[in-house]
Amino acid sequence: MLRPTRLVLSIATLLFSTIWAVAQMSHLGPVGQMGQATKVEESTASRLINRGNAEYRKAKYQTAIEYYSKVDRSAGELYARAIYNIGVCYFELYRTEEAIAMYQRAIKLQNERYPNALYALGVALEDLKRIPDAKRAYQKAIAASEGKHSLAYFRLGVITGEKDPEAAVELFRKAIAFSGDDLPAGHNNLGVMLARRGRFEEAQREFALAVRNARGQMPEAEHNLKLCSSLMRVRSNTAALTQFVINQSKPRS
After folding, report:
1. Is the N or the C terminus of the chain less surrounded, counting Cβ atoms within 10 Å?
2. 39-45: long-range contacts at Cβ-Cβ below 8 A with a sequence spacing of 24 or more?
3. What is the value of pTM for the model shown?
């Protein structure tokens, strides 16, 4: 996974706080037999990638790059995966421009149909504050995944939230839907968008889902849930008081 320090962008708005971008990439798992290479080539490529992955998990990124770099071009899709993995390592090493170059190379090798590399490209571009380019990369990731890339929807929601909360609401809903409801940050961010619009009942449900799914690992969602519940009680009490005042008896003249 990418280090949280490279992905977390915290923001406080009004009285609610949100973890904007805790969703992490973990696309360096074991690779299956892919592409048109021979069995020997595939076995060699898979072994090199798996050894690189093991070094990556130990945060030995430069060593991981050395293994990935040995994968031969004849390995087909595994070669594209190795190039992508090199990009991930560069990103971890804060060599973001080099990471972008590797992602773009992997995407080209896959004829622009590499959803995870497109998503990673968006993250790197966003890291460099190239927001319009990042949005295009996320949109391409969604298109390449036949509209099912939950993290790309999530990051688009993050980018869109400040200027277009309603659009962000729909993007976070899609992120949640395509994540198999395994995206606590999506529920939390959706709750913040709804709370900003005064839709506290809906927001409360989303915060509760975030707390449940995060299993105690998202204090921001817990804070938001308590705050939302408090605001709902205040609003309810205010409404009751208003009704009482309106219906009180008038003194006789």
Report:
1. C
2. 41/72, 41/74, 41/75, 42/75, 42/78, 44/71, 44/72, 44/75, 45/71, 45/72, 45/75, 45/78, 45/79, 45/82
3. 0.80
> 117: closest CA among 147, 94, 164, 151?
151
Give the whole-angstrom CA distance, residue 120 versus residue 100: 8
**Which of 113, 119, 149 lies closest to 135, judged by CA?**
119
CA distance 118 to 114: 6
Three-state secondary-structure class, residue 11: strand
With tokens 């939230």, the residue in question is: 161
Do 104 and 137 form a contact (C-beta atoms < 8 A)? no
**Left (φ > 0), alpha (ψ -120 to 50) or beta: where does 18 sit?**
beta
Q: What is the rounded distance in angstroms from the CA atom of residue 15 to the CA atom of residue 123?
A: 28
Phi, psi for 182 (deg, rounded to 5)? -120, 45
**Alpha-carbon span 126 to 35, nearest angstrom:** 31
Residue 133 structure tokens = 């380019």
pLDDT in tens, 151-210: 999 999 999 988 999 999 999 999 999 998 889 999 999 999 999 888 999 999 999 999
Length of the chain as a residue count = 253
